[in-house]
């Protein structure tokens, strides 16, 4: 077994950082920003005029303050170390574009995350955002299992023969639950520590 980990919403609390950045940009209290749990339009506001300004473009997610200001999700770094210490963690695979690879590495280094390769497979062009399947990166390092939060990723990875565990992050939960209902063979975990437990259980059964 070799495991790849998605970063945003699995290891990195990117939504908290994005919400704070939006609040700074608009000079409003962060508590006034309402989370919609929808991937492409994650925030809204009771004032319709402000709500219109809370629709980030793709470039927003590549901003240094958003990426470096994001917290690690609870116990996620420790869970990654459990995999690494067991010799199971092969790499991180993120939908971020390669242009922000230095910021990703800075974040990982600052939080003493396990030192494994990181693949950036996203694009700065929304039309090409999903053009490269994460399975290409998986195959480079022989990754057999991927932990991700995006149903779209789970679908393409599964079709490529990669085993997937879906993290049931708050963002995108409604769409994810629809996907889970239609794909009950794909396991789901509430967070990365629980996903790691599932991986260890499978690894023991295969031993």
Automatic annotation (TrEMBL):
Keywords: Plasmid. CDD domains: HAD_like. Gene3D superfamilies: HAD superfamily/HAD-like. The keyword Cell cycle does not apply. SUPFAM superfamilies: HAD-like (SSF56784). It comes from the Bacteria. The keyword Coiled coil does not apply. PANTHER family: NUCLEOTIDASE YQFW-RELATED (PTHR35134). This is HAD family hydrolase. It comes from Erythrobacter aureus.
